[in-house]
Design goal:
This protein is an alpha/beta fold. Helices cover 38% and strands 11% of the residues. It has a six-stranded mixed sheet with strand order 1-3-2-4-6-5, sandwiched between helices. A hairpin with a 2-residue loop joins strand 5 and strand 6. The protein starts with a helix and ends in an 8-residue tail after the last helix.
Amino acid sequence: MRPDDAELDRLEREITACRACPRLVAWREQVAADPPRRFRGEEYWARPVPGFGDREAAIVLVGLAPAANGANRTGRMFTGDRSGDWLYAALFRAGLASRPESVSRGDGLRLDGAYITAAVRCAPPANKPTVGERDRCRPYLDRELALLANVRVLVALGSFGWDAALRALADGGREIPRPKPRFGHGAEVVIGDRALLGSYHPSQQNTFTGRLTEAMLDDVLARAKALASGCEQLDAG
């Protein structure tokens, strides 16, 4: 099924023009005005970041929010920071990305079968959005997932992404099991016509300490591909 490109384009314009959260607007623009020395002279995106990838994808990855000097700088999800280096290398190994690194919006990288989004679209101070900021961003993810017509699998990168994905699935009319499914690396639950998989977030805190290894992330993406392709049936049990 073809996604509604016109509606997705409209949603992207709404996202990038959003100024609903004063604290986040101030922070994203402050970082752009006074960046670290290594990024001095670069033009920052300094706006909310839209989703990126294959609009016909069956797999959607849901992160937390843009990094202050990553996607807030480059304008593309998980692009320009160490988390993105780790994630796109894994997507390349899985056959879901055309190259193993993501440097800028114009670097020619393509995703095939995957789409990347986030619960919150602006970089938050200390990577910690407030509940109010999270909730004001919530409709964007709801609408995005409704418009991406071929989604079968959501991969939550971290517990924040897991909770956001559960809320989006509920908002889309799907019944969430009780008790609420718990996040964990490799956690898996089928909710209606979609599967939700959990992965530790590819943050430096997790990758530098070995809490998340390449093999661990590769396993989650392999499972996502199997479910997305129909090689494994979605079974709510």
